[in-house]
Structures are given as structure tokens and as C-alpha cells.
Design brief:
single chain, alpha+beta, Antithrombin, Chain I, domain 2, Alpha-1-antitrypsin, domain 1, 2 domains, 9-stranded mixed β-sheet, 6-stranded mixed β-sheet, 11 helices, 17 strands, about 25% helix
């Protein structure tokens, strides 16, 4: 080979087994130490998963972490606190590891990429939707970035552009997610479960670098399709997604999704539950009219409260924006309400997430009389055509797709990207879940009182305020 670097060997994946890895190197200690995660209870599985799959620099020293990210000198160590806007001089991740200024910058670049992706994907999803929409741009972005780890040449270049990763070199994008996954466990008053899994066709050889990268950076769990499972090979995957999402998404993959042409399914599952910093009194909720964009009226349970909130009228969007923080204030939901009834589509057309992010950072404090519907929305999408329209074409092409970084000896392509999300907003707070599967087949100012009455269709965004990462996004139209 002329002295070139040797390719790491292809490694068959143990059938439905979970490996205990030596110091997170990605190498199993022994065959005897594989655990069948499907034999565990839901709580045991989550505990086992979180224990086994800490990212690489979650288990290494700060010195080694910094050596991965660059020279040690000149690195400011920035603390990541659960409270919005607070920074300390000794930042720590979920396991008490120091995060350097460079790693914080990586996460910020990743957040910027995700923001652009959020508005681009939303613009595609709204085209053929006449009712409520809810999706998790974060979940979709994670699943596709995991897949991007195995993309090469033109396929990789297209994914970089669509996912907005041009400011992050290939390895840096994955390192940024590893750092972000550490900080996501910091909150004690918001429940956030994020899990990744890869399910593979038996005997499909997987590149060692791909497998190690997903285990180390994304805490990914590996398993095989179980064609002997009662209900079909989709059942174990659906059980896993149901466990992560606390039963909110119980039947993620439909029967027949996995067949002989399916090589691999990469899954991201996300569950969020947050209690309001300022709760609504149940006794104040009453049935009130909600004015649809077609001119008709329906009745909805309208929650009410009057308190100090961050508020802004956006001249660019022609919409009022109010922020409802959750208890730890790291996470908030932002309601974007068109100033005039019947103008949601105009607001949607003007929406650019990077510009909206600037608007959200310049909100002032006001006394707000808030009226907000209690609602629950659920959406399911095939993202194949939207992703192709955004520019990810070769990934879905049987002749041009290049995922040799996943399995060099097989012609792989993405046959579909399946996404499902659920969000519920009530007097106590918000509960939301999402799952994404990439199916890979062979080939401050003076207070004033503001009346914020969300009695017509509006947009909403659930966001991590520390890193401005959009977890969930959607619209409530009053039409189920």
C-alpha cells in the first residue's frame, strides 16, 4: 500500500448486545461482558445506556480534552450553568469535566448551523401542511450528523451544506455534539432524555471508525435487527423509542419498514418535560373562542395569567413574541403570535431562525396579560423529499450515494428519514418527545402592561437558552 495508513478492520456487531467499553475507547473488554439491553427494564436500560455511553472526553482528563481541541495556552475555561446567562470561571460538563472556551465555541457554531437548518426544514414542512406542525430540528440534525460521519466525497459535501456545518470541520462537528450532550444533563428541574441507537442488518460489516465515532461522540447503542421478534424486527426498536420518550411515541416504525433491503437504521429519540417558572392556575382556564385562519371559530381551553415576562413586538415578523421560561431558566418556550389574525403564513414566510435568534436576545421585561391555549400536537413526516429539495440529493440516490465510511464493501444509500414528534402544553408546563430514524438501504426598560392573547394561530419554539439550540418547533392552528 506504499506505506499509507492502513484502514481499520471491519467489525461485525454482536447480535443485540451492548458492549462495555474500555475507557470509552470503543473496544469491548470481552464477549462475556455484553449485555442484552432488551432484557432490561425501561429504567435499567436508560441507566445502562447513560453509563456505558459517555462521550470520550466525558471520561478523560481536562488536559487530554484540551489536547484534542488545540493548544492548552490561551484557553479560557467557561462554566456552563443551568441558569440562563450565568457563566463561572470553572465550567463543567455533566460529569464534572472542564469545558474549554474552544469547546463552548464549537457548540455555538453547531447551534448556528442547527438554527439555519431549523428554518430551512420548517419552510419545507409547512408547504403541504394545513394543520398543526411539530418537529424537533435538534433530533433530525443529530440523526443526520451521525449519518454524515460515514459519508464521503460529494455525498458528504451536500450534507455539510444542508446541515450548515461549513464552519465546522468534519471531526469538529461530532466533537461539538459530544460536548453539547455533556451539558444537556446539567438541569435538575427539567427532564431531558436524549438517546441514539444504531440497528444493523445481521452480518453487515461496519467500519470500526464509524462505530467508535458514534459510541464515543454520540453515546450510541448498537444492535442487530431481530427478525424473530414478535411483531417483526421493528418491535425492539419501537420498544426502545417508547422507553426513551416515556411512552409518548410507542409505535415509531410501522410494520414492514425493515425488509431484506434495509441495511441499517440510525435512530435519535428525545424526551423533554419542563415545569413553568410561573405556573398557570387550573381554576383560571376557561373555554374561549379561537379564530382560525379560514375565518371560522372553534372553542379551546384558554389558560390565563398576569405576570412579568420577556416580550417584544417584532417589526420584521409583524408578530408579538413572549418568553415563558421553565423552572431552571436554561430552557424556554417562545410564542410567536402574528399581530393580525389570518397572517400566520406571512409570518412563516418571513421566518429566518438566525434573525429570530437576534430578536429573542433583545426582548425586554413587561407585565403581560397572557392568554395561551392548552394544546397537544403530534406530527409524523417522511423527510426524504424535503431533504432532497434542500440539496441532499445524492444521499438518496442508489447510484451516487457514497457511505463507504459506514461499510466500505457495500453500496449504501438513505432510503428514508422518518421523524415523529409530540408536544403538550398545559397549566403545569410542557412535555415533548421526538424520534428520527435514518433508514439506510443497500445502495431591560420600564414595565408596561401588554395584552398577549393567543386566540389565533401562532408559532412556538422550545429552546436551550444557554446555547440557543432549538429543541422543538411548531405551529398551533386550532386544527387537529
Amino acid at each position: 500500500m506504499g506505506g499509507g495508513r492502513r484502514r481499520p478492520p471491519l467489525t461485525p456487531i454482536p447480535d443485540q448486545r451492548e458492549a462495555v467499553y474500555n475507557n470509552n475507547t470503543g473496544r469491548p473488554q470481552s464477549e462475556q461482558q455484553y449485555t442484552n439491553v432488551f432484557d432490561l427494564s425501561p429504567r435499567q436500560e436508560v441507566d445502562s445506556f447513560q453509563f456505558l455511553h459517555q462521550p470520550t472526553f466525558g471520561a478523560r482528563s481536562a488536559r487530554e480534552l484540551e489536547s484534542r481541541g488545540g493548544k492548552r495556552r490561551g484557553h479560557e475555561r467557561v462554566a456552563v450553568d443551568g441558569t440562563r446567562g450565568q457563566r463561572r470561571q470553572t465550567p463543567r460538563g455533566a460529569r464534572g469535566d472542564v469545558l474549554t472556551k474552544q469547546h463552548v465555541k464549537l457548540i455555538e457554531n453547531l447551534s448556528s448551523a442547527s438554527a439555519i437548518f431549523s428554518s430551512s426544514l420548517y419552510s419545507q414542512l409547512r408547504k403541504n401542511a394545513s394543520s398543526d406542525i411539530v418537529f424537533s430540528p435538534f433530533s433530525v440534525h443529530v440523526a443526520l450528523t451521525m449519518t454524515y460521519l460515514g459519508a464521503q466525497k460529494a455525498t458528504a459535501r451536500e450534507m455539510i451544506k444542508v446541515l450548515g456545518l461549513s464552519k465546522l470541520r468534519k471531526n469538529k462537528a461530532h466533537s461539538a455534539y459530544a460536548a453539547l450532550l455533556q451539558t444537556s444533563q446539567l438541569s435538575t428541574s427539567v427532564e431531558l432524555n436524549l438517546a441514539n441507537a444504531v440497528f444493523v442488518k445481521p452480518n453487515l460489516p461496519v467500519e470500526e471508525t464509524f462505530r467508535q465515532g458514534l459510541v464515543q461522540m454520540y453515546r450510541a447503542k448498537f444492535g442487530h435487527f431481530d427478525f424473530s421478534a414478535v411483531g417483526g424486527p421493528e418491535t425492539p426498536i419501537n420498544t426502545w423509542v417508547g422507553n426513551v420518550t416515556k411512552g409518548k411515541i410507542p409505535d415509531f416504525l410501522a410494520p414492514g419498514t425493515i425488509d431484506n433491503t434495509t441495511a441499517m437504521i440510525i435512530v435519535n429519540a428525545l424526551y423533554f418535560k419542563g415545569s413553568w417558572l410561573k405556573t398557570f392556575r387550573l381554576a383560571d382556564t376557561a373555554e374561549e373562542p379561537f379564530y382560525l385562519d379560514d375565518g371560522t371559530t372553534v372553542t379551546v381551553p384558554m389558560m390565563k395569567q398576569e405576570d412579568n415576562f420577556k416580550y417584544k413586538r417584532s417589526q420584521n415578523l409583524k408578530a408579538d413574541i413572549v418568553e415563558l421560561p421553565y423552572k431552571d431558566q436554561r430552557y424556554s418556550i417562545f410564542i410567536v403570535l402574528p399581530v393580525s389574525r389570518g397572517t400566520l403564513s406571512q409570518v412563516e414566510q418571513s421566518l429566518k431562525m438566525e434573525e429570530l435568534t437576534s430578536e429573542l436576545e433583545s426582548m425586554g421585561n413587561d407585565k403581560v396579560k397572557l392568554f395561551l391555549p392548552r394544546f397537544k400536537s403530534k406530527s409524523r413526516f417522511s423527510l426524504k423529499e424535503p431533504m432532497k429539495r434542500l440539496g441532499m440529493r445524492s444521499s438518496f440516490n442508489t447510484k451516487r450515494a457514497n457511505f463507504r465510511g459506514i461499510s466500505s464493501g457495500n453500496q449504501l444509500f438513505i432510503s428514508d428519514v422518518i421523524h415523529e414528534a409530540v408536544v403538550e402544553v398545559n397549566e403545569e408546563g410542557t412535555e415533548a418527545s421526538a424520534a428520527t430514524a435514518v433508514k439506510i438501504s443497500f445502495k431591560s426598560r420600564p414595565f408596561r402592561t401588554v395584552n398577549f392573547r393567543a386566540d389565533h394561530p401562532f408559532l412556538y419554539i422550545i429552546r436551550d437558552n444557554t446555547y440557543k439550540m432549538v429543541l422543538f418547533m411548531g405551529r398551533y392552528t386550532g386544527v387537529a
